[in-house]
Each structure stands twice: as C-alpha cells, then as structure tokens.
Design goal:
The complex is a heterodimer. Chain A is an all-alpha fold. Helices cover about 55% and strands about 0% of the residues of chain A. The longest helix of chain A has 27 residues. About 10% of the residues of chain A have low confidence. Chain B has a single domain, classed as Ferritin. Chain B is globular, with a radius of gyration of 18 Å. The chains are: A mainly alpha, B mainly alpha.
C-alpha cells in the first residue's frame, strides 16, 4: 500500500486534497506518527479516520467558532424569512401570518447583527441570499410558492436552531456570552412554538402538531420524513440516567416525558442539516 | 457522575451556624423577618422537610444551589398547572384544556427530575400562595401562566452562567426551551402573534433590538416569584 499513490489518485478528482488535509496539522501529525507504529493491516482504518477529519463536518471548538457557527445559522434563517417577506408576494397570507413571519425575520436579523458585531474582525464572511438553496436541491422545490412547504421548512429551521444552540452551551460555560446565547436560544424556541401552531393550522394532515415536540419512535413528530435528521433523538425520555416516564409514581407518560426535555444536536450534525440548504463553496465544514 | 447524589462534595443543607454567620454579608432576603434569624432557624431544622413558617435556603456556592433554585421554580409552576388542569376555567377550549394538561405534566416531570437529581440535597416542598389568581377565569389563568413561563425562561437564562457541570448546563437548556415553547403558546392564547413580543419583556431583561429573551439573576426572579410562595426563601453566596 503506497499512501502517496492514494493521495495522488485522490488529487486527480479533488485538486484540493492537500489543502484539505494540510490545515489539519494535528491530524496529519497523528497520522504519520501512527504510521510508524501501526501495522499495515490497520492502515485503511487510519486513513478512513484521516479523511473523515478532512471531509466531515467538525464541531466548533472554541468561543469564536461557536459564535461563527451560530452566525451561519442565523444568516440561513434570516435570508429564508426575508426572501419570503420581501420577494415572494402572496406566499404568506397578509395579517397575523405575515406579521408573525416578519417578527421572526426581524429577530433573526437582530441575531445576525448581534453575533457579527460581537465577533468583529473574527466574524465569518457574510452570507447572502444567493449563497443558499432553500429548495434543498429540489426536495422543497415549491418552498417560495407553496405556503405549506414554506412552513414545513421554517419548522425544521426553528427546531434545528433550538437544538443547535443547546449543543454549544458547554463551550460557553461560565462566560457572559453564554447568557446571550441562552437568550437567543429561548427566542428560537418561541419561534418554533409559534411556527408549530402555524403548521398545525395550515398544513394538510398536521392539525395535531403541538407547540412542543411530541414523542414518536424516531423523534420526528412533524410527519415530514425529509427532516428526520432534525428530530433524531427527540424521543429520548432518560435525562442524566433518570427515567422521566412515570417518574416517582407520577402519571407522566412517555410522550409527556419526551416533550418535557428538548434534546441537543452536535455542531457537526447541525452543519450537515444546514448544508442541505447552503450552496458550494459556502457549505459549513 | 450520574447524578448529584454521587457528588461527595455535596453539603447542600449542611450549612453550619458558624458558616451562616460568616456568610451574612452576602445574605439576601426576600420575605419575612431578619435574615440571620431565619437562616439559623433553617439550619437548625435542616432534617425537617416541612418549611412552613421557617423558610429554606438556596446556597449558590455550587450547582446544588442552582439546581435547588430550579427545583423551587418547577415546584411553583407544577403546583399552578396541577390546579389549572384539575379544574380548568369553563371558557377553555378542548385544545386549551389538553395543552394545559400537557404543560402540567411537563412541569411535574421537571420538578421530579430535579428532586431525584438532587437526592438528599433537595430542598423540601414549598408552600405556594395563589390567592391572587382566579382559577375560574380564563383570562386570569392565562395571565398567570404567561407570567410564570416568561419568568421561568428569564430565570433559567440568568442562572445558566452559574452552572459549573456542563451536563447540568445542557439539561437546563433542555428545559428552558420547553418553557419558552410554553410561554409562546400561552401568549398566543392571550393574543395571537405575541409569542415573542420581546419589547414587553424588558423588565425581565429582554432586548427587542437585539432579539434577546429575558435573563434575570436569581434574586430578581425570587423577588417577583415571592408573591406566589409562602415559604421564606433565603439566598446566600449569590
């Protein structure tokens, strides 16, 4: 097995392979050090692990990475709603519905401004509407012409946003910026609650959707299979080793138990979901 | 560490009399007579789980204090919703009755979770005072529910920074987003579209221009919640 040959083969289809690998100095160093010790048989595994690091989505590792991760998501949400409000006439019914979506749009814009301002020169390159594909490659082709589709995508974004902020809390532990992140997180949860009510009122077959995430076997209570990844794990009823269903002899059912604790998503899982809506070369790494 | 029972550093209610005296400078008191007197009484009856008339102490020196604080607020919310769900206002719709049932069980789940996580470190049962709420009136119940939920969100948001164990920080996050879902739904029952009317929440620390929900320190939260709690709650080491 000649590793240089493998890398050269990859280079033929991916000219940036060395560039992708080189920033991961630690991964490369580990890999070469490992090569000295690891038997030939184990090398494919080691290679697989290296390429996972080069091509997979990573979890934010420090405060700036967390804030830039959040900023990317806020750009996504802001542009999604803003386009609906300003460039998709007739999509959202005038009155309460347009008012609610405008309120949410304004909050997402405020979050973009707040995070970009807090990051200053460390802020990521701004994302424009044209950097996104809100049809997700055609999966939601009528997102800006069919109100029901629009609400389904909005629902996925809000519930993802809630899970995304939750997952980053440990990195911000004990810092003032944690409070700010929690304050944004709660606003996203309020949005999610309201969008869920809008979905229940407007989407065919969704009249039973609750403002909170009810128990289903795979965690997804929305009936939209395309967004299963958004809800993966929401069926959990065990918190810190404590079973919530029927806790202390109470009448708390499995669905109450799943509803009463929202779950977090890792940064890498959130990035995979967000990347469905982000065009190259801006996909999150 | 699976739960707080296993934390060998736990000394939640074991605040000695001398310690209490030394901590007087950081004492904050929300109701009733002199703080030191109440604290000494509480320390003296720490084995007694009935706090009526004596008060209980939240010691914020570590996560036990924060979790007991959350436990206290969840006790308050659960007590309120149990009362609503058992005899809802006649004007409630079927969906409203069902969702108030849901919310009741969510708050019971939160309360019992903290009770079990805290184990022997848990404070006792608080005595509540809902005399200001008309449980036969939909508007009175909804208004109270809104204030409980908005306050609960601000409480968790303001306390998160004090949590030292990342696991419990995430769990607090798992709970607060559910409280925010409640808050938004209740607000929409009162006036559709007010789910995140941050401009009306500035007294709870919200900032509409920045898109930020409320966040309040425990002393401020307890000062507001004190209206509904008979048990005296003393706070130290905040």
């Amino acid at each position: 097995m000649n590793i240089v040959n493998i890398l050269e083969e990859i280079e033929k289809v991916d000219g940036e392979i060395y560039e992708r690998l080189s920033p991961r100095r630690a991964a490369m160093k580990d890999f070469f050090n490992m090569g000295k010790k690891v038997s030939l048989a184990a090398l494919p595994l080691a290679l697989g692990s290296m390429f996972q690091k080069a091509y997979g989505q990573t979890n934010p590792a420090n405060v700036n990475e967390v804030l830039n991760f959040a900023l990317s998501l806020e750009y996504l949400e802001y542009h999604f709603y803003n386009h609906a409000v300003v460039a998709a006439p007739g999509l959202i019914p005038a009155g309460a519905a347009l008012g609610a979506i405008t309120t949410i749009r304004n909050h997402e814009q405020a979050h973009v401004n707040l995070l970009a301002g807090a990051l200053g020169s460390n802020a990521r390159t701004p994302l424009a509407y044209t950097d996104f594909d809100f049809t997700a490659g055609g999966g939601f082709a009528d997102v800006y012409t069919n109100y029901q589709t629009f609400l389904k995508v909005a629902l996925a974004f809000e519930d993802t946003g809630v899970r995304a902020y939750k997952g980053q809390a440990p990195i911000l532990k004990g810092m003032p910026v944690l409070t700010t992140a929690l304050q944004i997180h709660a606003v996203e949860a309020r949005h999610a609650s309201h969008i869920r009510q809008m979905v229940a009122a407007n989407v065919t077959g969704a009249s039973g959707l609750k403002p909170w995430i009810a128990y289903t076997a795979n965690g997804n209570d929305t009936g939209v299979a395309a967004v299963n990844a958004v809800y993966a794990g929401e069926q959990n009823t065990t918190i810190a080793g404590i079973q919530i269903t029927g806790i202390n002899g109470s009448a708390v059912t499995q669905t109450h138990a799943a509803e009463s604790f929202d779950e977090f998503l890792t940064g890498s899982d959130v990035k995979k979901i967000a990347n469905l809506f982000i065009k190259d070369p801006n996909k999150l790494s | 560490m699976e739960n707080l029972n296993e934390n060998q550093n736990a000394q939640p209610n074991d605040v000695g009399v001398l310690d209490v005296k030394l901590q007087r400078r950081s004492f904050l008191q929300y109701a009733g007579a002199g703080a030191a007197v109440v604290a000494l009484t509480a320390a003296g009856c720490k084995k007694d789980r009935v706090y009526t008339g004596m008060g209980t102490t939240l010691d914020f020196k570590d996560d036990f204090g924060v979790l007991n604080y959350a436990y206290a607020l969840e006790q308050l919310e659960a007590a309120f919703y149990i009362k609503v769900a058992s005899a809802p206002p006649s004007a409630f719709t079927t969906v409203q009755k069902n969702y108030f049932q849901d919310v009741q069980f969510h708050e019971i789940a939160h309360r019992e979770f903290f009770k079990n996580a805290l184990g022997t470190a848990a404070i006792g049962s608080l005595e509540v005072d809902f005399s200001s709420i008309d449980f036969t009136s939909a508007s009175s119940v909804l208004a109270a529910a809104q204030s409980f939920e908005d306050l609960g969100v601000a409480a968790y948001n303001g306390a998160g920074v004090r949590i030292q164990d990342a696991k419990y920080l995430v769990i607090a996050g798992q709970i607060v987003s559910v409280e925010a879902r409640h808050a938004a739904w209740v607000r929409d029952q009162i006036s559709n579209g007010t789910f995140a009317d941050l401009a009306t929440l500035t007294t709870l620390g919200a900032d509409n221009a920045k898109g930020l929900d409320g966040a309040l320190t425990p002393d401020k939260v307890l000062a507001i919640a004190g209206k509904y709690i008979k048990t005296k709650i003393n706070v130290i080491n905040l």
